[in-house]
Predict the 3D structure of the following.
Amino acid sequence: MKQIPWIDVFKGIAILVVVVAHCSPDSLVKYLLWIPLPPFFFLSGYLYKPEVSFKVFLKKKTLRLLVPYAAFLILLGLPKVIFFLKEEPAAGAIDVIQLIGLLFYGGKELGGIFATFWFISCLFFTQQLYHFLYLKTFSKKWLFYGSLVLLYVLATLNSGYYALSFPWNINVVALSIFYFYFGHLARKLEPIPRGVKAVFLLFIFPALALDLSGIISFEFDMRYSFYGYPVFNLAVGVSFSLWFQELSKWISRFGPGQKILSEMGRASLVIMFLHLAVIKGIKDVFHFNSAVLLVILGLIIPYILYRVFRLYPLTRKLFLGDFSKELFN
């Protein structure tokens, strides 16, 4: 498949915002949480192609996402288990089994350096459910759209019960599938009518103004199922997705930093898995608290590891999900 020039830039911008959010003061985190994750689901939907069977699609995405998920979980989880045994010498087999079980349960139960793992599992299940619905119900559009509406209703109901915990944050699929759908729709409607795109692009400014003025308080954190106001949460996510798309297209043609952002985009999977571990390690060992420095190192160190993983067939498979001859085919 021919690579669309702006795609890697889009991923580079999104992963940059993710890392910045994890290094920012609490006063900014609220707004930064609005931004990066819906565009990732949107982009996945934009790249979605329904021409393959459910079985082939399942195998392809399992290799692409779940194999790296398991590899990084073991890479970071094994030291955690070892440190746990060292710090808790009285711990028994049941305690270790509970810790390992928690790691594999995933979702929002995983905090600390594992806090971003939920996104990969949620993306995988979003892709699978959308593909299933598209293959089985799209010929009966009322059933397809009815299913999406039902899922959104479930997401809205779930937003009021934050204490509920689901394995791999599979419950968040009920919302993320809408961003995926809008991405798929955007690809089919290209070029999107200017009037429609302008409405979504401009929406973010009154949304921010309403929140900053205190008229509304929009809390949005997909990991914890904080979805805020119904419909509003969809508009915000689509708005940022289209902003990312327009900015990515501009940078890929004219803008500075195109090469750097493209490289960050290609390494986005590794950065997603590793940047929190890098940031925590730097804070614990070197006691650095400079947000700028933490962002830079949180990007550069995982990127270097990504380049190392590319060198060997086994690490390409395990950590990049590359089971093809072409790395980004």
Observations:
- The longest helix spans residues 54-87.
- The chain is about 70% helix and 0% strand.
